[in-house]
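Students often ask why inverse folding is considered easier than folding. One informal answer: many sequences map to the same fold, so there is more than one right answer. In these notes we will look at a single instance of the problem. The structure comes first.
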C-alpha cells in the first residue's frame, strides 16, 4: 500500500501546543536521592515530528513515562491539548524500545495488534478485524498475521508493535528508542516506514534516540538534553527537504551542519562518547 504524506504542522485552534512539558521536575526519594530532571520545558505542536537526544541516565525514558501519564512528576505539569495529563490519555500511545517484552508471545501477530482495541466497545468485531488488517498491511506484515511474534525477525516484531500502536489511531505517538535493538539496514527501513506513516496515519510523533543522525533524518526539531539534573540545552529546528532519502538527505551539506551543531552542544557537556554521531 502506498503511503501518501499529508502533513499539517500547526498549533491547536486555541493556539496552544498539542503536547507541552511545563517546568517538569522528577525526584526519586530513597536511600540516595536522585534528581532526574528539573525545570524541563518544551513543546510539540500538532503535526510535528520531534526527536529528543540525551546521554544515558539523563531520564529520557522517565520523561516519556511522565508525559504518558504512567509516572507523576514531582513538580511542573505535562499537558495534552491544554489539559493536564494524570493518566494515559486515549489519544496517546507509547512504543517501548524492547519489543520482545511488549509483545505477547502466545498470541498471533494479528492477536497482538487486536489487543490494543479489543475492549473498544465503539467498534464491532468486523470493524476491529478490518482495522487490524489495515495496519498490518501498512507496516508490510499482512501475510504474517497468523505467525507468532517469535517466528519473526526483530525488525518485523517492531513493526508489529508499531501496527498495534496505529490500531489505536492516536493523535500522538511516543517512541522510546524503538530501533536501537535492530541492525543498521533494518533500522533504515524502519526509519523510512515511520516517515511514510507520519502525517498520514500518525499525526504527531515524539521520538527518543541516542543517534544524532537518526534524530536529524527523522525530525522537524531536535530537543537536546543535558546530564542530570536534566534540562533542555538546545531546541534545533531541522529545515531539510521532504520527502527524505537515506543517501540524499544524509549527504546534504545542511545535514552535516546540523550534526556539527548538536554534536558540539553534546561535547560541551563532556559526554559526547555516549552518543552515535556517524
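Output (designed amino acids):
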Amino acid at each position: 500500500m502506498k503511503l501518501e504524506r499529508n502533513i499539517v504542522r500547526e498549533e491547536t485552534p486555541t493556539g496552544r501546543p498539542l503536547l507541552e512539558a511545563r517546568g517538569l521536575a522528577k525526584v526519586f526519594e530513597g536511600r540516595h536521592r536522585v534528581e532526574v530532571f528539573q525545570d524541563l520545558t518544551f513543546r510539540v505542536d500538532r503535526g510535528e515530528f520531534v526527536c529528543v537526544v540525551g546521554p544515558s541516565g539523563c531520564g529520557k525514558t522517565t520523561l516519556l513515562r511522565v508525559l504518558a501519564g504512567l509516572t507523576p512528576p514531582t513538580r511542573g505539569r505535562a499537558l495534552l491539548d491544554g489539559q493536564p495529563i494524570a493518566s494515559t490519555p486515549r489519544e496517546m500511545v507509547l512504543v517501548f524500545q524492547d519489543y520482545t517484552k511488549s509483545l505477547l508471545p502466545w498470541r498471533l501477530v494479528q492477536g497482538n495488534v487486536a489487543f490494543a482495541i479489543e475492549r473498544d466497545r465503539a467498534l464491532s468485531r468486523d470493524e476491529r478485524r478490518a482495522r487490524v488488517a489495515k495496519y498490518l498491511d501498512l507496516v508490510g506484515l499482512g501475510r504474517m498475521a497468523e505467525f507468532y511474534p517469535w517466528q519473526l525477525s526483530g525488525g518485523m516484531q517492531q513493526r508489529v508493535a508499531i501496527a498495534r500502536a496505529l490500531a489505536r489511531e492516536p493523535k500522538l505517538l511516543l517512541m522510546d528508542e524503538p530501533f536501537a535493538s535492530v541492525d543498521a539496514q533494518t533500522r533504515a527501513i524502519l526509519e523510512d516506514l515511520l516517515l511514510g506513516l507520519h502525517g498520514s496515519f500518525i499525526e504527531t510523533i515524539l521520538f527518543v534516540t541516542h543517534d544524532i543522525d537518526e534524530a536529524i533524518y527523522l525530525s522537524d526539531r531536535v530537543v537536546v538534553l543535558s546530564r542530570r539534573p536534566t534540562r533542555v540545552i538546545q531546541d534545533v529546528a531541522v529545515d531539510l527537504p521532504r520527502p527524505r532519502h537515506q543517501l540524499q538527505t544524509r549527504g546534504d551539506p545542511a545535514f552535516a551542519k546540523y550534526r556539527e551543531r548538536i554534536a558540539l552542544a553534546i561535547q560541551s557537556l563532556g559526554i559526547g562518547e555516549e552518543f552515535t554521531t556517524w
